[in-house]
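Example 9 (inverse folding). The structure is encoded as follows.
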């Protein structure tokens, strides 16, 4: 069990104790607000801290949940408990529509878009007669169960914090799962995730939806806690404040949501009283203090306050409970010598520049083919055209008899073609074992709901068994529980190969795997490649290290200025005057 989940369970045990303590009603009310705010911040931990998507509009989803229950209970007499599910349904529809439009944007356009639709929902709430315009809806009843009024005190505290803890546990379960690893891969960009068979856009919409649903539940609770609803609690100011809470607490940590919400709520109340008394005049001076604090935290503690705690706590190794797990299913492999890959006159033009000009070659099962050439020859571009990372201007790619010319990289991955990257792509705060397990994404089926409810245990054990097997296969069995970000370049590149092998590929594509490696590490890499070839693996290798290329490759394809210069065996390439001229500028 990781440290965050341990603390959550301790908090769960503390909630009934706190409810029974003789605390003043003021502090119970404060804890209620902290729980409500933390529930919204939990969604931001998933959306922003894990998924890398910045949203200033979560307060609008709080408003959807609050206004739904307020209007339905006041106008139809519907049970507040039923209005929760109606509110979640309306929030889901809103989030899917908004997310499908805005999440196609990147960079600063996404945060600006969230501001735009947040403002739109705020003004919509404030201008509808049915919603009471800016005065809002008054006279809501508090929640009750079986005639027992939950009210605004201790019973409401227990309800709010029970929902918060349940949400935190569900989120931690999700992050430690097949879809969770896919979500964690989003922050590093789409190329690596798509190459693992992951639909990055679908997962962006998914985490946007989950964050909105957390906010909607908070809005439902808030409406019955305050017994009134008006737009002021759901505007851009609160949207910024929620994000501020998450960042201050630690937007990458589930506990950061709780710490940030508690700290900002308590400081806000204190500063509203202390600053006017200190300065001698009234005003919203706490906003200035929070602004300065935000700048200082972003500069000196970018991972938030909880990161200070996380660094001090030992990271317990994952319980190795998968030794008896069933192996993952495997795909059929081509027979030795069978045609695996046929490249037929592929071309890539960027405007008036032809980066790859009608390249053709074949690769047969059990062979290592090297794609070489001077810097700027177009090797990596050709590599990306084959794997679907780039679209082709013309030409055709056939993989095991199937035309994959127009398929995106995630679909090509599902067919059994796996790759590594010129610059290592990984998730540095996940262990080596978890990074490698990401490669098996296409071999599983568990979804978000089953992961949150932890009904996916058997499949997770199968993933971990496969990841351990692939790491041991390439001699990295001692690195299972090491954080990937702590590895040196050599083990990182071997880890990428193990991750690609977890896909159970029929064809392995390696993009400059020896770049940055020391001599000993290159020797270990060569040994791994020969071992994989001996096991029947087909490999396409893009590499600058000629000693490694000549040692392990059966066939070489030489490119120059985007065109095919020549191809043949390593001995034929070494004897070629044209190749010597391409590399050295002279045939002699």
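The amino acid assigned to each position is listed next.
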């Amino acid at each position: 069990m990781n440290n965050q989940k341990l603390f959550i369970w301790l908090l769960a045990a503390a909630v009934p104790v706190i409810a029974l303590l003789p605390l003043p009603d003021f502090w119970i009310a404060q804890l209620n607000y902290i729980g409500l705010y933390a529930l919204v911040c939990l969604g931001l931990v998933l959306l922003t801290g894990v998924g890398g998507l910045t949203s200033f509009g979560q307060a609008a989803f709080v408003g959807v949940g609050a206004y739904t229950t307020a209007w339905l209970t006041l106008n139809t007499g519907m049970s507040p408990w039923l209005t929760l599910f109606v509110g979640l349904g309306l929030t889901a529809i809103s989030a899917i529509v908004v997310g499908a439009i805005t999440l196609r944007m990147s960079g600063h356009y996404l945060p600006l878009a969230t501001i735009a639709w947040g403002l739109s929902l705020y003004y919509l709430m404030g201008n509808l007669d049915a919603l009471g315009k800016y005065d809002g809806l008054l006279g809501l009843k508090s929640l009750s169960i079986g005639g027992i009024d939950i009210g605004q005190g201790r019973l409401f505290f227990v309800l709010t914090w029970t929902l918060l803890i349940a949400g935190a546990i569900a989120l931690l379960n999700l992050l430690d799962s097949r879809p969770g690893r896919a979500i964690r891969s989003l922050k590093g960009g789409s190329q690596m995730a798509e190459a693992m068979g992951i639909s990055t856009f679908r997962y962006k919409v998914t985490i946007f939806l989950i964050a909105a649903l957390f906010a909607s539940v908070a809005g439902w609770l808030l409406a019955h806690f305050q017994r009134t609803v008006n737009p002021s609690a759901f505007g851009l100011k609160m949207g910024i404040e929620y994000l501020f809470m998450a960042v201050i607490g630690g937007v990458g940590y589930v506990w950061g949501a709780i710490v940030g919400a508690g700290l900002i709520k308590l400081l806000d109340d204190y500063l509203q009283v202390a600053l006017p008394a200190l300065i001698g005049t009234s005003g919203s001076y706490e906003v200035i203090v929070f602004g300065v604090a935000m700048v200082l935290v972003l500069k000196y503690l970018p991972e938030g306050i909880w990161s200070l705690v996380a660094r001090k706590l030992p990271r317990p190794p994952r319980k190795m409970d998968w030794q008896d797990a069933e192996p993952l299913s495997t795909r059929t492999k081509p027979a030795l010598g069978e045609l695996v890959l046929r490249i037929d006159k592929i071309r890539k033009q960027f405007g008036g520049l032809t980066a790859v000009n009608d390249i053709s070659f074949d690769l047969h099962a059990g062979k290592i083919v090297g794609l070489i050439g001077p810097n700027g020859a177009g090797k990596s571009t050709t590599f990306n055209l084959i794997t679907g990372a780039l679209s082709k201007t013309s030409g055709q790619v056939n993989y095991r008899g199937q035309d994959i010319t127009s398929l995106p990289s995630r679909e090509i991955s599902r067919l059994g073609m796996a790759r590594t990257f010129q610059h290592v792509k990984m998730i540095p705060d996940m262990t080596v074992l978890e990074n490698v397990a990401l490669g098996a994404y296409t071999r599983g089926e568990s979804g978000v709901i089953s992961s949150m409810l932890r009904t996916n245990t058997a499949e997770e054990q199968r993933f971990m068994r496969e990841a351990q097997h692939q790491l041991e296969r390439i001699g990295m069995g001692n690195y299972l529980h090491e954080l990937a970000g702590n590895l040196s370049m050599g083990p990182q590149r071997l880890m990428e190969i193990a991750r690609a092998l977890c896909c159970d590929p029929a064809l392995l594509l390696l993009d400059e795997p020896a770049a940055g490696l020391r001599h000993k590490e290159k020797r270990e890499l060569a040994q791994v490649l020969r071992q994989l070839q001996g096991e029947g693996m087909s490999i396409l290798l893009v590499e600058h290290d000629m000693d490694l290329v000549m040692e392990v490759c059966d066939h070489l394809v030489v490119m120059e200025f985007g065109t095919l210069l020549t191809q043949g065996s390593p001995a034929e390439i070494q004897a070629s005057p044209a190749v010597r001229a391409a590399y050295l500028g002279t045939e002699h």
